[in-house]
Amino acid sequence: MPPLSGPLHDRLGRPLRDLRISVTDRCNFRCGYCMPREAFGHDHAFLPQRSLLTFEEIRRVAGIFVKLGVTKIRLTGGEPLLRRGLDTLIRELATLRTPEGAPVELAMTTNGVLLERMADRLREAGLHRVTVSLDALDPARFQAMADTDVDVKQVLRGIDAAMDAGLGPVKVNMVVQKGRNDDQILPMVRYFRHRPVTLRFIEYMDVGQTNGWNLREVLSWQDIHALIHQAHPLEPLDRHDPAATALRWRFADGHGELGFIASVTQAFCGDCTRLRLSTEGMLYTCLFAHRGYDLRALVREQALPDEAVAAHLSGLWRARQDRYSELRHQHVPAHHAPAAPTSSTGSRIEMSYIGG
Ligand code: SAM
Ligand code: SF4
Ligand code: SF4
To answer: Which residues 6+ apart lie within 8 Å of 109 measured at CB?
Structure first.
């Protein structure tokens, strides 16, 4: 039996550091790039309650992961704030300590709809930071992107509430789809640059198989950067954490910072220290994995002790050699889309199932 502590490295020498836990596969939005209504309509079969990992199970496996080297946990979904009693789970996770005795960094990615109402409670429970996804400021464009009746002001109030509650530095993630919301890039920059918020632009990714991904709808980070730079000159910043996903820039006039998550045109697999746990307890060593590893079976059906679970998890991480984005990078030109349309194929897992 291996010792219950790290450091644990995969076959490409990457340590296990970040655990993303999806706490629900449900969502109150239907963003076209993630949960298009045609595929996630009224008759869609979401996971039954009994399939979900319980809070006790999540707390237990998270504890094992922390002993194996995880220092940061991000709660995601679906929409994590839809999971009932989430603050109870956060309170439990906040008690975790690394082998060195440090608290684990607890973050969450949310669409922000329920944030205004919940921010204080989340902070009090022990959450450290939130990232809010927001794809447009224009009210109609926002509603079209998220396929919702919710007023964009509700999300903006949620962001303010998160800042007021001390859940900062708050990040705002904008997925850019060419021809759909690229006209919102500059309004978003203007709105957020004088607030204590880091706005990050995400290249539209070929994740899952329901969004009908097409490379022609991807606006590269270089194009987004050029558009912003023309109006608001930018200068590069060092990435302080090599495992961070974003390329960091700041405004040359000193007011504010920006990030670009170039998941399509500039792969960052070499620094990927992330492991994802789905709502029903499947583990994925890559966002683009085809198959998961059934952790729930180990802790529920087989009722293995911690040491045995840790041995399985160590083996899983040590065998990891995923680098999907780098391999795709060999086929996709770094900057511009090829003339021929390219679509995603294969049975990939959905973003709403595994979390972003
Ligand atoms: N519902 C929460 C939210 O939207 O923040 C958390 C889950 S969502 C799946 C996590 C992140 O994945 C969001 O920032 C979302 O914009 C991003 N995302 C989903 N589908 C994507 C895609 N096809 N390409 C790029 N980012 C995507
Ligand atoms: Fe829901 Fe987030 Fe997916 Fe949008 S990106 S549909 S908010 S899970
Ligand atoms: Fe990590 Fe896979 Fe994304 Fe590469 S493609 S950065 S290995 S999740």
So the answer is: 74, 75, 76, 80, 130, 131, 132, 133, 173, 355, 356
